[in-house]
Amino acid sequence: MTRRTRLAVVLTTSLLAAGGLAGCNDSGDDQSPASGPTKHHTRATDGGATDDAGDDGGSDDSGDTTTVPVYFVGDTPQGTRLYREFRKVAADGSAGAALSLAASGDALDPDYGTLLPAGTFGDITYDEQIVVPLPDDSWTRLPDGMSERDALMAIQQIVYTVQGVLQRRSPVVFTDGDGNQTQIFGVASEDGFSEADPIRTLALMSVTSPETDQSVSGTLHASGVGSSFEANVVWRIQDAGGDTVKDGSATAAGWMDKLYPWSTDIDVSDLDAGTYTFVASTDDPSGGEGAGPTVDTKEFTVG
Questions:
Q1: Beta carbons of 105 and 72 less than 8 angstroms apart
Q2: Running DSSP on this structure, what letter comes out for residue 196?
Q3: Non-local CB neighbours of 181 within 8 Å, separated by 6+ positions
Q4: How many C-beta neighbours within 10 Å does residue 173 have?
Q5: What is the reported pLDDT for 61?
Q6: Where's the GerMN domain (predicted)?
Q7: Which of 37, 50, 230, 245 is deepest in the core (most CB within 10 A)?
Q8: Is 0.85 surpassed by the pTM of this model?
Q9: Which of 151, 175, 201 is the last residue of a domain?
């Protein structure tokens, strides 16, 4: 049995058992991957037409730039999952620019990274399928040190990003330098890759606002997406010393089947000027007996 055939058998078995992380034109394994997210710029190793995760959308900021969703990866109690940041990229070729940013691992949040090799994406076209030319032929093979589960999550990093930018749920196919459809990381799909189940792919808690290093005055508008027990989002604000100075909860629009938006306004007018951390987490009904809550943090300043 060849390595490629063996990988296909392993992945097919994994998909049948775990619900389809590859998303091969359908909507994983919760074990932590053998290798983790990479920040290419700091170290060598380390939701479509409507987005189920909430408020994706490419809103034009100017004639030259547009704001798009870019998916990075981070660690959660369920293993490596996808986190979303809204980023400004060039309006011309925004999908390729967003994928190049995802591959760079250059997230604003220092807790996020990437599973993708470094590479620059060119023009992306779409009709019934979204066609993504790979940066080079090395992307067709499983990179050294990348686990098979990481390969599936890396593919989803691309799928969620490009579908979010284009606001289309069309299946994603990959082409080589000659424009021929090809596999990616040793995984082939004739029909293309669709977004995988968000509950098994996305971090169950993700903060959209405040953004990392945002300056806030008077009222902090906190928002994000999540899937938390009974839609309860637990939040707190910590000072530079790690002490909690404010805490509370918010209610998301739903839970269980996908990630739902949540938001809350917090009075910070009584806080001294300085740096603080906003912490949002899922509720933990197990009382610490389970894997624990999924947490996302954003550092911000009060001026």
A1: yes
A2: P
A3: 173, 174, 175, 190
A4: 18
A5: 59
A6: 69-175
A7: 37
A8: no
A9: 201
Question: What is the 8-class DSSP label of residue 33?
Answer: P
98 and 223 within one domain: no
CA distance 279 to 205: 10
Average pLDDT over residues 181-209: 97
CA distance 83 to 71: 6
Give CA–CA dist 292/281, Å, rounded.
Answer: 10
Per-residue tokens: 289: 């007996």
Say if residue 148 is in the same domain as residue 214.
Answer: no
Residues 176, 215: one domain? Answer: no
Q: Note whether 286 and 223 are same-domain residues.
A: yes
H helix or E strand, kind and range, residue 273: none
Note whether 213 and 176 are same-domain residues: no
Q: What is the DSSP letter of 38?
A: B
Q: What mean pLDDT is predicted for residues 231-246?
A: 98
Phi, psi of 301 (to 5 degrees): -120, 145
Task: Give the number of domains in the chain.
Answer: 2
Mean pLDDT of 151-168: 98
- Looking at 185, 201, 217, the residue that finishes a domain is 201
**Whole-number pLDDT of residue 63:** 72
Q: Cα separation of 103 and 101, whole Å?
A: 5
Residue 126 in contact with residue 148, Cβ under 8 Å? no
- Which structure tokens are listed for 92? 């011309």
Q: What is the pLDDT of residues 280-301, one digit of tens each?
A: 999 988 877 778 899 999 999 9
